[in-house]
Amino acid sequence: DGGITQSPKYLFRKEGQNVTLSCEQNLNHDAMYWYRQDPGQGLRLIYYSQIVNDFQKGDIAEGYSVSREKKESFPLTVTSAQKNPTAFYLCASSSWGKDEQFFGPGTRLTVL
Amino acid sequence: RKEVEQDPGPFNVPEGATVAFNCTYSNSASQSFFWYRQDCRKEPKLLMSVYSSGNEDGRFTAQLNRASQYISLLIRDSKLSDSATYLCVVSLDSSYKLIFGSGTRLLVRP
Fold first, then answer.
1. Are B100 and A43 inside 8 Å of each other by CB?
2. Residue in A closest to B94 by C-alpha
3. pLDDT value at residue A98
4. Which B positions 29-88 lie with beta carbon below 8 A of chain A?
């Protein structure tokens, strides 16, 4: 089965803690993306990567960090510097030269 | 002004009805256009791309009007399973970045 997986599905964090969200794809897609979705709002781009060992900031990168050591994997770390981290986090990927993005099932992060 | 604007709804329609959603975008350099569907607490899924000539996929028809900078989605013969939020999505020429509208919620009642 080809697709995008994210783990965990639900994550609870205490204030001041860093947490890492996993995203893996076996679609052989070159580009990967992280979005954040808040209730009643559109998706906002956090980071994206078009190639291994390279990534770019999106519109709301402050308080987040990423790595892209393998084509298949693009983990997102939510640091304690992120002021309002409670949200639904979505990972996506796309083929080179294609605009369509395909999403993983998401991780719902709650800060207690 | 938001880059992609949609009526949030909800649109509440009976089964079998025809319903249309519109979406406007602000950047005239936008190149690619999509409709995604998002079920409650799930990820968005690509419903269809929108081409300049318009395109149809079964009960769904998408239209693009570049001059007026709006995109439409028409759903015919609505099913209960069509109940979801429909996201209008636009891509700029750089192609990596998708701009998402906040979505239009559709409720189809028996």
1. yes
2. A99
3. 83
4. 31-32, 34, 41-46, 49, 87
Give the tens place of pLDDT for each residue, A48-74: 999 999 999 999 999 999 999 999 999
**Backbone φ and ψ of B83, nearest 5°:** -60, 120
Q: Is the dihedral of CA B94, A99, A85, A27 positive or negative?
A: negative
* Closest approach of A45 to chain B, Cα-based (Å): 8
Q: From CA A103, how far away is CA A45, in angstroms rounded? A: 13
The candidate with the shortest Cα–Cα distance to B2, out of B86, B103, B106, is B103
Q: Which of A42, A52, A25 is nearest to B44 (CA)?
A: A42
Residue ranges in chain A modelled with pLDDT below 50: none
Residue of A nearest to B95 (CA): A99
Q: What is the pLDDT of residue B95?
A: 55
* Cα-Cα end-to-end distance for chain B: 37
CA distance B11 to chain A (A): 15
Instruction: Please indicate whether, in this complex, the C-beta atoms of A97 and B45 are within 8 angstroms of each other.
Output: no
Averaged pLDDT in 10-residue chunks for chain B of 110 residues: 89 97 92 94 95 91 94 97 96 78 96
Specify which residues A78 forms β-bridges with: A19, A64
Q: How far apart are CA B47 and CA B106, in angstroms?
A: 14
User: Please, what's the b/e burial string for A7-17 (b: 16 or more CB within 10 A of its CB; e: otherwise)?
Assistant: eeeebebeeee
